[in-house]
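Annotated sample (chain length 271).
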Amino acid sequence: MDFSNWHTYDHYGYALLAVFGTFAAVAAIHWLMHRSPWAGWVRSLNGVVPPFINIIGVLFGLTLAFLANDTWSAHDRAMNAVYKEADALRSLVVLNSQLEEPQRSQLGEALNDYANASVAEWSLLGDYANASVAEWSLLAQRKSSPEVSAKADHLLTLLGSHAMAKAAGDNVQALMLRKVTDIRDERDLRIGLSQTHINPLKWLGMAFLGLLTLLSVAVVHAENPRAAFVAIMLFALAAAPTAAIVLVQGNPFQQPSSVSPAPIAAALAEH
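Output written by the structure step:
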């Protein structure tokens, strides 16, 4: 795995940072309350009432929820794009079966070429298990496959030809052109989603609110250091893994929850 391009795997790095950073903050707060030169002063801050935590805690929870929604929404959009692309391919296969030769063979070959190239391209978008070294270098740059673009252009050119209009008729040709346009649009969408990145400013804001929440919990239990440690540790155990789970799903075409190209492969396998 080539990590020379950090931006490709930034969400994994941020996930590790979220976990280790949270527990580093817990250790720092524990040291501040017990062994630091300011420990006595910190213990004197025992007048903060527990409901004060709710204000910052709610802000932290809402921020994390919004970030999680952005991430999972991108995954859902990518999955929907794949199924719509597969459905458009399946429709073209059905319409193609009604054509006469040689248009039927020409379009069938073009559809097979596109689907095979598209499934191969998936390795470039995030199928770690099957990606070759050459494909991985393109994945590291989050680029699309020029071969798939060429196949999509060929489909459009073939369906827009006079020969196809004569063989299929104007109405069927117009329907086919709409389907190939859908294919191109959905492919552009999944490529765009594959190139999304973590927004550091959003997560920095969430991390700041998380730190303030840890400090608030510690101050509320300032008179009882052991209770303070238990409270901030419980918060860290809840917040850090949750944030990491959201972060590692920053790219819908990368593990651990990558969108599968199976619907596109199955679109032609059924016929």
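Annotation: Residues 120-140 have pLDDT under 50 and may be disordered.
Annotation: The first helix runs from residue 10 to 34.
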